[in-house]
Amino acid sequence: MADATQARQAAANAGAGVLTLEREAHTLADRLPEILINAQRIAHTVAHGLHGRRRSGPGETFWQFRQFQSSDTLRQIDWRRSASSDHLFVREREWEAAHTVSLWCDLSPSMDFRSHLAPVTKRERALLITLAAAELLVRGGERVSLLGLTPPSASRKATTRMAEAVLAHEGSEAQQATQPPKVTLARFSGAVIVSDFLDPIERTRTHIEALAADGAVGHLIEIVDPAEETLPYDGRTEFLSPDGGQRWVADRVQTLRARYQERIAAHRAEVRELAQRMGWSFLVHHTDHSPTEPLLSLIMRMQGSGADHRWQSQESATAEHLQQPEANR
């Protein structure tokens, strides 16, 4: 009798789990078109005035016409184009040496957090930045992939296919993971990892070092809800784990604020040190800020520009905020 009762309970729990995942899938399906449209809009905004990596060189795809120069040979002249002008023109082809950039964003339960200080969840912001970065990279002539979900592609539909892959794998084990897959990326390829990086530093170090084992260049973007950084609560406060399975109550939570902020700052310093040791870049993005800020900094860093001032200034502003007296906040 007890076994039958336990079996029914297990079946009921499994059914409830399936229904929960179904509701989450429908919610994401409702939001994905909007997220994808926003990603493309943001990518268009950031791309204005920036130049991608596409350039002329050996290849089969037409690039552009330019005027004939003394160093060119007669075989390079495009006589049809030249016939309609008083000048001779050479047909240039696009240099087919695009890099592959693998992107991964944390979609685990901890990313579902949103406080009263932010307009969106960390999950939505991470996915938005990932898709927008993919859109920009494809426009710049690069191949992009969603690590563990989609193969490298330079197609203009690559971003849409990434969004479809996220939806198709909603609730899967891969999307419950708080770390990217342990794979070794090809030398000279790139990686963009978007997460809250709240796992113990040992786990993060193991997975990131695996990605960088053969010399891949990467970029870490930490997504933070402002409440996670400042602990802006007072009095008796209840905290729940992302899955709701654990509960903790603090009677006077404000007395924990200074120590909490110290631990957050120390943990972030360890993630930053890991990135610096591997030659990777590191950016902190708050969900109450514009998503164009980290995207612009990311693209400028990937282009090798030293003018990505927001990359440093955001971290400096965060440090200054944490050091301010509580009365000034």
Topology summary:
Blueprint: H1 2-47, E1 62-67, H2 79-83, E2 89-93, E3 100-105, H3 122-139, E4 143-146, H4 158-168, H5 173-176, E5 190-195, H6 201-211, E6 217-224, H7 226-230, E7 237-240, E8 247-250, H8 257-278, E9 281-286, H9 292-302, H10 309-323
Parallel strand pairs: 3-4, 3-5, 5-6, 6-9
Antiparallel strand pairs: 1-2, 7-8
Outline the structure in words:
A five-stranded parallel beta sheet has the order 4-3-5-6-9, sandwiched between helices. It is α/β, with parallel strands linked by helices. It is built from ten helices and nine strands. It folds into two domains: 249 residues, Rossmann fold, CATH 3.40.50; 32 residues, no CATH class. It is elongated and about 85 Å long. The N and C termini lie far apart (60 Å). It comes from Hyphomicrobium sulfonivorans. This is DUF58 domain-containing protein. Keywords: Coiled coil.
Brief account:
This protein has 329 residues and is an alpha/beta fold. Helices cover 45% and strands 15% of the residues. The longest helix has 46 residues, at 2-47.
